[in-house]
Design goal:
The complex is a heterodimer of chains A (108) and B (161). Chain A has 108 residues and is α+β, with helices and mostly antiparallel strands. Helix content of chain A is 36%, strand content 29%.
Chain lengths: 108, 161
């Protein structure tokens, strides 16, 4: 499991990929305050956020998304992808591209 | 022609009672815990390959994001998703009289697949076509495909007369 500094770096890396692929900070400060989660980004009317979760003792980095601004405004996003803590930058970038619909998921 | 599916007990089923598609691998089974009735992805592909527009029309308040991303993991992309919130906003609106939870004719859906008995009664009353799928049935997908093709033939024949 990553320590706090490592987690922060990885989350910032995800957010850098958000920006690289055209997302901008949505400015939903109230939503961020309500949820206590990280900044929400927006791209083509869809909202995204990076986060973490632990499942069965294993840490994952989450990509969350919602296309309904009413939910985004109160910080409610759906978890749509999960990356293991040792995921390389290339895997993180691919996950962001899939989440943004730039490339298909392998199943598609 | 448009065909729509309800979710609960139609495409989303309990593995205790129905044969299901394999669960998504960990941790996606935690992000998307709903299980698909066996045959669902193939049926959707077959319908779309046969030229049908395939929608989800559910009274569930699951978000469109959740529904879309769950099905993406099974290689399925619906043409449109109507959830309970969208139905309320677009169909019920501020009407004083409550409408049924689903009104397929509002969306020009030619055939709606659902598990509820009430949907057949509503179909008769409000003038839309519905098919009930509510029991484990290994031939359910073939029956849905056959019914969709039958309805399409009826519609094509009535357009040409």
């Amino acid at each position: 499991m990553d320590n706090k500094a490592q987690s922060e770096e990885k989350l910032e890396q995800i957010e850098r990929f958000f920006v690289q692929y055209g997302a901008v900070p949505a400015g939903l400060k109230a939503a961020e305050a309500i949820s206590g989660e990280r900044r929400i980004f927006e791209r083509q009317g869809v909202y995204y956020r990076a986060g973490t979760a632990v499942f069965d003792g294993k840490q994952f980095y989450l990509l969350s998304s919602i296309d309904n601004p009413k939910y985004a405004e109160i910080g409610i996003l759906e978890d749509i992808d999960a990356l293991p803590s040792d995921a390389p930058a290339s895997a993180i970038e691919k996950a962001v591209r899939c989440a943004f619909g730039i490339e298909p998921y392998p199943e598609e | 022609m448009r065909i729509s599916f309800d979710l609960d007990d139609v495409l989303f089923v309990s593995p205790d009672r129905y044969e299901t598609e394999p669960a998504l691998h960990f941790p996606f089974n935690r992000l998307f815990p709903d299980r698909l009735r066996k045959g669902t992805p193939q049926l959707i592909h077959d319908l779309q390959h046969a030229g049908f527009e395939v929608w989800v029309y559910t009274s569930s308040l699951r978000t469109e994001t959740y529904i879309k991303n769950l099905f993406r993991r099974y290689g399925v992309k619906f043409d449109r998703i109507i959830n309970g919130e969208r139905h309320q906003k677009e169909v019920q609106r501020k009407r004083p009289q409550p409408l049924p939870q689903k009104m397929p004719n509002f969306y020009h859906i030619s055939l709606h697949i659902d598990d509820e008995k009430a949907i057949l009664e509503n179909a008769r009353q409000y003038g839309f076509r519905a098919m009930r799928v509510y029991e484990p049935d290994e031939h359910w997908a073939e029956k849905v495909l056959a019914e969709a093709k039958r309805i399409r033939k009826i519609e094509e024949n009535s357009e040409s007369t």
